[in-house]
Structure formats: structure tokens, C-alpha cells
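### Sample
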Amino acid sequence: MAMSQRLLAPLASDGGTALRETLDSYLRHSGSSREICDELFIHRNTLTYRLRKIEDALGLDLSDGEVRATCLLALSIVAAHG
């Protein structure tokens, strides 16, 4: 669990949960902009901005399937442990 928390820790830099919620939605909706924006009530430009911030903060490329799987697992582990 500690590794998952360390992986996701940079997402707290926005002072809230917006980046983490965006990443979670992105992964659950397989990158579907329409579905993500509808769920989060955000504009597509906001989604693009947040995804860029997430990649920069984590130092990862979300277009990589292994990276997406790792992030999804980390989010699941952290959520399961409160």
C-alpha cells in the first residue's frame, strides 16, 4: 500500500482531489473524453489540462497501457485501505 500512496502522492499538489478524481475517471472510462467530462462536469479543455498535469506530476505517459494498469491498481489499493 505504501508504494501505491507514494505513486499517487504528487496528485495532491493541487491542494485537493481534482487530479486524483480525474485520473480515476480517465482509467474507468478508458480515456473516453465525453464520459469523463460528463461524470466530472468539466470542459474538454479542462480534462486535457488535468491529464497533462497528472502526467507531469507522476512523470508517466498515460498512453502506455502498463502505466494505466499500474495507476488503476494503485488507485484500487489506496481506495480499499481508506
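The longest helix spans residues 65-80. This sample (DNA-binding PucR family transcriptional regulator) is used throughout the tutorial notebook.
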